[in-house]
């Protein structure tokens, strides 16, 4: 066996690349088993600085990596074999693309002489993901004269591309010839290596221009306006700076749950979290027309706030974006400031803006207090009931959040539940961190994403029945993770009850799609503790057991869909009555 033996060459080449990735900060990789990726898989397994997690299903592995990257705010790598395997990453990397989450995609490939000649497990993997990745690299096959300096800089460049100027997935397609690994004693003795010297990469901090700040202050100072914060991974210190700016301008802040501004020790005195109820007709605030709007983060989730922003389109709308994207689907922005949102808030604060006219913010504060009072009364009535009662989203969500320990993480599924979290989560000084897949807003891979979050700490996943069934096989990898999956089973796609298709005779078959899978039994078959509860008191007891036990648990909560619809409408009616 010589240094030019193909198997040994593949391994040394792979170790050089893996060591370089570790040197520039890669700490986690999700592997799916395969043959062609063997040199890279072994290199990762023998690199002590990188934690390797093996997930059989490439689709689930990709969503797990997505969740871990969200939780750690660091790039996470994926590795799989050639053929259709990397295509299973596609849904997760679309979410990473639209959600600006850094991922490093390492697909093994067959050598070019096999492409197009009918070789097994061989497809064209060049530019496989098109415009959904920030960059694509296909380095030459390993050869005896390969350059370690090139691989070190390739690793640094790929990691840098995944983080700036717009975080997202980066694809490296890595071809190997057979034999893939050395054989005999040499393979067993070939030890891993330490991290190589890191190649320093310094990304800039985007600062707002003085002119943009001055012009914005001239438009918003001493005038009635609002700050609207959608979901985003805001920088540390943003909550305090934003709260101080709102105090200076004496304006309300409408903050969604995924903004992570609703829970924490920062000043929340100007925060409004019940807007989904008090911006509806016939509330007087539904007709309120601000003169300016300052928007940060993603465009709002709920149709109520979207419609209210549409009606306020004549106002000056200043959109803050930390990257090159334009979060303005209403085409109403009059100014786009592409800069770090913390720096923008601090610059506006230093500009000395004047407060809004007296009474402007107080109207929102009164509406918030009225809606909060209605919500608390409804929760207390059910919580104090002597007899068991059915569970509604408006009472379960605040009860769940009240019980979670400080610092806990919650992943919320899409469709109706993310809107319920927006409407019913409330606010507290207890720090909690919220996650969701709102890039493409799909129901695919939600449990896997939550498992990825749970790979770095305890997590609760709040999902619907269709979302849970769509990704149920992910629970096969739940062992060893502290995750509680709360499934609100309302018998199908409950969100469609609020859309015009609900009146169609084909509604139940084509849109509602009720399922018959026993989710508790399915979870138990995969080694996950499972319980079904039918009242709020039973749910709280089950939640308490799961928190104390640790590990994975699925709690199914049947919800009467018609009662849920009636409960929401009654809540809106009571808020309107309280405001009147």
Automatic annotation (TrEMBL):
Keyword Magnesium appears in the UniProt entry: yes
EC number per UniProt: 2.2.1.9
Keywords assigned by UniProt, alphabetized: Magnesium, Manganese, Menaquinone biosynthesis, Metal-binding, Thiamine pyrophosphate, Transferase
Keyword field contains Manganese: yes
Entry-linked SUPFAM superfamilies: DHS-like NAD/FAD-binding domain, Thiamin diphosphate-binding fold (THDP-binding)
InterPro entries reported for this sequence: DHS-like_NAD/FAD-binding_dom (IPR029035), MenaQ_synth_MenD (IPR004433), THDP-binding (IPR029061), Thiamin_PyroP_enz_TPP-bd_dom (IPR012001), TPP_enzyme_TPP-bd (IPR011766)
Pathway: Quinol/quinone metabolism; menaquinone biosynthesis; Quinol/quinone metabolism; 1,4-dihydroxy-2-naphthoate biosynthesis; 1,4-dihydroxy-2-naphthoate from chorismate: step 2/7
TM annotation in the entry: none
GO biological process, any: menaquinone biosynthetic process
Cofactor note as given: Binds 1 thiamine pyrophosphate per subunit.
Co-factor(s): Mg(2+); Mn(2+); thiamine diphosphate
Catalytic activity from the UniProt record: isochorismate + 2-oxoglutarate + H(+) = 5-enolpyruvoyl-6-hydroxy-2-succinyl-cyclohex-3-ene-1-carboxylate + CO2
Biological role stated in the UniProt entry: Catalyzes the thiamine diphosphate-dependent decarboxylation of 2-oxoglutarate and the subsequent addition of the resulting succinic semialdehyde-thiamine pyrophosphate anion to isochorismate to yield 2-succinyl-5-enolpyruvyl-6-hydroxy-3-cyclohexene-1-carboxylate (SEPHCHC).
Description of how the protein assembles with itself and partners: Homodimer.
Protein name, entry field: 2-succinyl-5-enolpyruvyl-6-hydroxy-3-cyclohexene-1-carboxylate synthase
Organism (species): Candidatus Accumulibacter appositus
Lineage per the UniProt record: Bacteria, Pseudomonadati, Pseudomonadota, Betaproteobacteria, Candidatus Accumulibacter
């Amino acid at each position: 066996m010589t240094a030019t033996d193909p198997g040994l060459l593949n391994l040394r080449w792979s170790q050089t690349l893996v060591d370089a990735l570790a040197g520039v900060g890669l700490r986690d990789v999700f592997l799916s088993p395969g043959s062609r990726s063997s040199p890279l898989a072994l290199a990762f397994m023998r690199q002590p600085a990188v934690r390797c997690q093996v997930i059989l299903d490439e689709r689930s592995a990709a969503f797990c990596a997505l969740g871990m990257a969200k939780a750690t705010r660091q790039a996470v790598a994926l590795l799989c074999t050639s053929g259709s395997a990397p295509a299973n990453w596609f849904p997760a990397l679309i979410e990473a693309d639209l959600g600006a989450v850094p991922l490093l995609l390492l697909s093994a490939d067959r050598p070019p002489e096999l492409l197009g000649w009918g070789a097994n497990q061989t497809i064209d993997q060049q530019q496989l993901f098109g415009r959904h990745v920030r960059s694509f690299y296909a380095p030459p096959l390993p050869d005896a004269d390969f350059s370690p300096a090139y691989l070190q800089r390739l690793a640094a460049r790929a990691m840098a591309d995944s983080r700036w100027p717009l975080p997202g997935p980066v694809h490296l397609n890595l071809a190997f010839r057979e034999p893939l690994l050395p054989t005999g004693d040499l393979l067993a003795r070939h030890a891993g290596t330490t991290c190589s010297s890191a190649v320093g990469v310094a990304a800039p901090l985007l600062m707002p221009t003085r002119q943009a700040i001055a012009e914005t202050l001239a438009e918003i100072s001493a005038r009635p306006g609002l700050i609207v914060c959608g979901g985003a991974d805001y920088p540390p210190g943003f909550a305090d700076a934003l709260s101080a700016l709102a105090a200076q301008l004496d304006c309300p802040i409408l903050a969604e749950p995924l903004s992570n501004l609703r829970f924490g020790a920062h000043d929340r005195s100007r925060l409004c979290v019940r807007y989904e109820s008090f911006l509806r007709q016939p509330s007087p605030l539904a007709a309120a027309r601000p003169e300016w709007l300052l928007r940060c983060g993603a465009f709002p989730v709920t149709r109520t706030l979207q419609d209210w922003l549409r009606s306020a389109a004549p106002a000056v709308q200043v959109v803050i974006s930390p990257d090159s994207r334009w979060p303005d689907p209403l085409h109403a922005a009059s100014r786009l400031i592409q800069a770090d949102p913390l720096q923008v808030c601090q610059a506006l604060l230093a500009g000395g803006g004047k407060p809004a006219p007296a009474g402007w913010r107080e109207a929102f504060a009164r509406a918030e207090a009225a809606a909060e009072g209605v919500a608390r009364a409804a929760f207390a009535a059910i919580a104090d009931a002597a007899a068991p009662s059915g569970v509604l989203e408006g009472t379960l969500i605040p009860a769940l959040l009240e019980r979670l320990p400080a610092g806990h993480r919650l992943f919320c599924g899409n469709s109706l539940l993310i809107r319920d979290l927006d409407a019913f989560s409330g606010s507290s000084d207890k720090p909690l961190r919220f996650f969701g897949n709102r890039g493409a807003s799909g129901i695919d891979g939600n449990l896997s994403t939550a498992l990825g979050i749970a790979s770095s700490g305890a997590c609760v996943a709040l999902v619907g029945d269709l979302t849970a069934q769509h990704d149920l096989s992910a629970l096969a990898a739940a062992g060893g993770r502290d995750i509680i999956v709360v499934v609100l089973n309302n018998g199908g796609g409950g969100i469609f009850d609020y859309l015009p298709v609900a009146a169609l005779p084909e509604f139940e078959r084509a849109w509602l799609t009720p399922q018959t899978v026993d989710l508790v039994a399915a979870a138990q078959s995969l080694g996950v503790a499972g319980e079904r509860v039918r009242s709020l008191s039973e749910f709280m007891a089950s939640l308490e057991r799961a928190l104390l036990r640790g590990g994975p648990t699925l709690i199914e909560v049947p919800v009467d869909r018609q009662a849920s619809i009636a409960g929401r409408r009654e809540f809106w009616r009571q808020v309107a009555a309280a405001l009147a």
